[in-house]
Amino acid sequence: MTPRPLPSIRAELPDDVRIDLIARRADITASRWRVEAAEQNRAAARAEFFPDVTVNGLLGVQSVELSSLLEYGSRVPAVSAAIHLPLFDSGKLKARYGAAQSSIDSAVASYRETVVSAARDVATQASTLARIEAQRTQR
């Protein structure tokens, strides 16, 4: 066996580095998910403004004797309804909606900061790589 040198590694960035590569970073993805979660919380807070109508129905059978269990007179129907109108909770609902909106604003600001930080990091790494390459060629 003869020793062979290790292959040389190209330490350069592709010419077409785009924002797509930056968008695949885990911190940016997590930040985007925070924005989407905040938007879902706002949608839930908005849904609390609408009235809630619930209708329940039940049909059962009841009998003392097993032989008359399936007869018409053994049936026991029950129906109930509930209505919730958010008339007197408007201040609390508006506060929740405002908090959800401010949560979205905060998440969007954090997302923008994360994207700018990632772009700055990539630019720093690219300039460092170019500086190292220039030093290598001078040597």
Descriptive notes:
With 139 residues, the chain is an alpha+beta fold. The chain has 2 domains: 17-50 and 87-139; 51-85, no CATH class. It is 55% helix and 14% strand. It has helices spanning 19-23, 26-47, 90-138, and strands spanning 52-61, 75-84.
Distance between the termini: 32 Å
Q: How many helices in DSSP terms?
A: 3
Strand proportion, as a percent range, falls in 5-15%
* Main beta sheet strand tally, sense and closure: 2 strands, antiparallel
Which runs of at least 5 residues are low in confidence (pLDDT < 50)? none
Summed over residues and divided by their number, the pLDDT gives a mean of 87
Give the SSE string. Answer: HHEEH
- Helix proportion of residues, in percent? 40-55%
Shape: elongated
Order of neighbouring strands in the sheet with most strands? 1-2
- CA-based gyration radius: 32 Å
The assembly state of the depicted protein chains is single chain
Q: Care to count the β-strands?
A: 2
Number of individual domains = 2
Structural class call reads: alpha+beta
Characterize this entry briefly.
It is built from 3 helices and 2 strands, in the order H-H-E-E-H. It is of the alpha+beta class.
Characteristics:
alpha+beta; elongated; 2 strands; 3 helices; 139 residues
What does the secondary structure layout of this molecule look like, with pairings?
Elements: H1 19-23, H2 26-47, E1 52-61, E2 75-84, H3 90-138
Antiparallel strand pairs: 1-2
Helix pairs in contact: 2-3
